[in-house]
Specification:
Four copies of one chain form a homotetramer. Chain A is an alpha/beta fold. Chain A is 38% helix and 25% strand. A six-stranded mixed beta sheet of chain A has the order 7-8-9-6-10-11. A five-stranded parallel beta sheet of chain A has the order 2-1-3-4-5, with helices on both faces. Chain A has a two-stranded antiparallel ribbon with strand order 12-13. The longest helix of chain A has 20 residues, at 300-319. Chains A, B, C, D: GO terms for molecular function: nucleotide binding; oxidoreductase activity.
Chain lengths: 325, 325, 325, 325
């Protein structure tokens, strides 16, 4: 059993706490949160103590730190935990600022750090990558990544989100890098505000298309909207020399109703905690593997690279031209 | 060009006339109907003459006769046309009475007669049979034939229909024989009147399940209802030693709407003339092949055998026990 | 927290133990198994003690007993636990002998007993029932229950299984009763041995069709095979006055490969512990609800009724005639 | 009956000839082709005379001219036929040169000219547009148009094709205009040569993504490849404020094979003459309507506008920047 502590008892922190607590090789050994009541509530739920950051860092029995606090603290906590010799599970994004993120390179480049891009652990996307890697459809040529949220967040969230590219598309940039097999060398982004005018007043967009191109000419389109109108819409199509492999949305059940109107399937899963429940479990399982010695499947450098693409997309949007990332 | 004449200018006759007229190797050389106005209208539409039966039979240039008149005339016209040396295209059923149908054996057993079980010519069911015959899923073990009409016919039709088994399930009995590769040796039927009480008052049923068993133990269930609630419902599942092959319903288009309610496909085709438009064309093409010398793919003996199964099902229903056909 | 004990540390017992141990309102307070090593191993895995049956029954703090031992012990343990005032979670079937099962009526009719027909807790079948109950497709008229195992069990299992109807179709009889809304009054079964001749030598069948009819004329076909050739095949179609609702098989992922051969979906789930993992969790959750006072959703009487239908099917098969259950 | 003549007896001309000849309101009254043998063969097939262009233009009984000759002749024949007072059915593209096409404005702007963008007449895309126009999914926000050929044409064709944008994507630009409800004001294209290096040596690309933006901010991505690896791949997704509507590829049949590998659908239609057989029929039917007085659904101005977008895409590709069309 590896002892791990959680920093950040918010919504996503509670998911990770629960997965760690239920994992056969992990023990949730402490909860840390700036808001004492939040820490107490979550700690009590899992029979774990509330700790201070210092206590956790100084306890040599604690092998892993799960960082699910606010984005602006991700880097500092990661550096601190890495320095203390802990394995780090850090929520995405690594930071909202590429310069800051890169500046942590000395501290984090060789840390045992899992950057928690949950989609890499989703069974559907993993099955897609396995098909691609198997060579069953030949050599990859292009990608279509569709990633639409069910509904836009409140303006208060938008204001501190870092913008659509860093907040939402960051996952898609990571998916693109994971699947393309080459780094994008050119980024073009175009965007509009079509969903909620308030998002536009805050200087952000809610609808975007980003086109990536790699050195060998592979193309990738990322389609984003803050609102799909039909639930959580996360699909990937990978086109290759001998066919295509796609991962589709997930429905609530396999039930269909056939009526005069035709065949109607059940609703698409609407909430990311449902859609990615298994991905979060697999991600925590991978963290347990890391504590057993397995290298991180996705780490600090991936977090920086995805952030660089997000910044490039924002720059392209501002300039109205393709840019190098 | 082979000259063919049509007997019976009703709904199905008009389909066959149109397909014959457009066929590159057929010429619609005459229309025969007891109702002169019907014959005139259809003949004019295709620039063909109205003929009497005698004229058609006596004209040695006429090679084929398409019989689409009322069911009680099918046998007589077939015998007459066969005796005149014509190739015969006879609408199903061969007759409503098994004794009568069998009595025509001497006259029709070796006639060039296509019994127009249109489903044998449907591209979907043909593709299913091709898969089965290819051995791709091993040896056939059982069949599920689902055959539901969009809506019940008027009681006036029910009264002269010959009953659900002879009128509607006759197609399914033919499909069963075509696919099973063995003759059924046992028939069990159960039925209810759930759709329209008037059908029950006329002594018929509107909902049925028929179970066939062959000598080697292959099983087939035929599911029938006079009303599906969702269009023309005609599906087959064939289970074999290495998997299953199925043919599904046909939709109006490939369009789907994705909304909060989920993914909704377009309507299923509702009308048999839409659903089987291509089957009717292929059937006529096969008749052209017969006029070129190809043997009939489905003939008199098949019509009798399907009718025997329909009678057996009716007998089983009446007795409440399985029977031999 | 309700304390529960498990009797029977075999394959299905281990699933229930794990679900109980992880349930927020349940505590696995003991493991009982005739084979001490099995009991020890499972108990240790969950940090629970090994108990004798007497210890468990005498401990007033233990509120619930999960019976996952061999079929021939289900009734005795249920009676004993009910007499001790425990809530009972009893694996299906209630027994292999209808007379014995009925004889326990006095002891079990009003017991707090959950008969663990897991499919009632499957999210897909629950969604199907919810649609049906919502009236969205009108009044139920007929059911098609398809239930095929991936591959036949070894002959040694067949020999003690009680036969296809009691061992395998018992689930389907329960589904039929759950959905039909009326008790079947007539049962007709036909069967063959097509999958494995050894099954036939043991006096059993491996392929069957059973037709049920209720007093109002509702029809239900149950299709069974010991081997599907394509994984765990468990589907239901419910036909009603305004359409149809169906629950389909579950695939390993949403991934499709599109190639010259067409679109190929991922494999169907093959193993019942995968296919019904969520059903087993929901079932245990319901048991927790029972310990909080909720009546059992499916109990002793349901177990007896499903067994009666299984015996009727076996009788019909032997007689070659429909029978009353 | 309206008399129409065909100019150009090549592959697509033969399709139009056949559809005109079978149309109940059209009579194929002549075939014109620079290669006499081609004209003779097709004319004979339909019992029509071979004509010279002058004969056709001078014959006041001929109401319509179908232009299916080589692209460089489309404009001249259209101008000539319009001047002769004929209704014109002109194959796409209107021309390969935007300047030339625009120069014909005086002659063709008010001509009765159907520019034969066949996809506008495809039942699937029409059903998609009908859903969109119905308001069922709210206000359109963005489009994904996927358009991949089964396999690349020979280099000899590429050399005279006008390039991927004018030859292949021209259809997609028309679809975009048809569905967007607004003219694109910005075009960005990126492309690669990934399918066949010979295409690159000829200065063309075989893989492209084009992003269109309208004045109100609607976005459209067009994805093109000269080779799909799985047949004719032509799909559209339209995203709107209340959901999405999509049109999918068409399969050869509804047959599926279920095996250990999962469910495999039948092949996608591979050949454009199969995929769009009905579209070609509907297109000719619309031409018949035009001869009865209906205005053209898609005409000269649409041909010029699609060509302008194709030229803009080529310019954007060359410049590496978005451009105005």
């Amino acid at each position: 059993m590896h002892k791990v502590v959680l920093i950040g008892a918010g919504r996503i922190g509670r998911i990770h706490a629960s997965n760690a607590a239920r994992h056969p090789r992990l023990q949730l050994a402490g909860v840390i949160d700036a808001i004492d009541a939040s820490a107490q509530a979550l700690a009590q739920e899992h029979g774990a103590p509330v700790l201070t950051l210092d206590q956790a860092m100084d306890d040599a029995d604690i092998g892993g730190v799960i960082i699910a606090s606010s984005t602006d603290t991700h880097l500092d906590y990661s550096v601190r935990a890495a320095a203390a010799g802990k394995a780090v599970f850090c929520e995405k994004p690594i930071d909202q600022d590429l310069g800051r993120a890169r500046a942590a390179s000395a501290a984090l480049s060789s840390a045992r750090l899992l950057l928690a891009f949950n989609r890499r652990f989703d069974p559907n996307f993993r099955a897609l990558k396995a098909k691609l890697d198997s060579g069953a459809i030949g050599t990859l040529e292009s990608l279509q990544i569709t990633s639409n949220d069910p509904a836009p967040p409140p303006p208060s969230y938008i204001a501190v989100s870092g913008g659509l590219f860093k907040d939402m598309a960051i996952h898609d940039f990571d998916m693109a890098r994971w699947l393309l097999g080459e780094e994008p060398v050119q980024v073009y982004a175009v965007g509009s505000c079509l969903v909620d005018p308030e998002i536009g007043r805050l200087g952000d967009i809610d609808t975007a298309r980003t086109v990536l191109k790699t050195a060998s000419g592979r193309l990738c389109v990322i389609s984003n909207s803050r609102r799909s109108g039909f639930g959580y819409d996360q699909r990937i199509e990978a086109y290759a020399s001998a066919g295509m492999v796609r991962a589709d949305n997930v429905t609530e059940s396999t039930v269909q109703v056939w009526s005069e109107a035709g065949a109607a399937a059940d609703r698409f899963q609407n909430f990311f905690l449902d859609r990615y429940a298994e991905a979060y479990r697999q991600e925590m399982d991978h963290f347990a593997d890391m504590l057993d010695g397995t290298p991180a499947a996705v780490g600090y450098a991936d977090g920086v690279a995805a952030l660089a693409l997000a910044e490039a997309a924002a720059r392209s949007l501002a300039l109205g031209q393709p840019v190098a990332p």
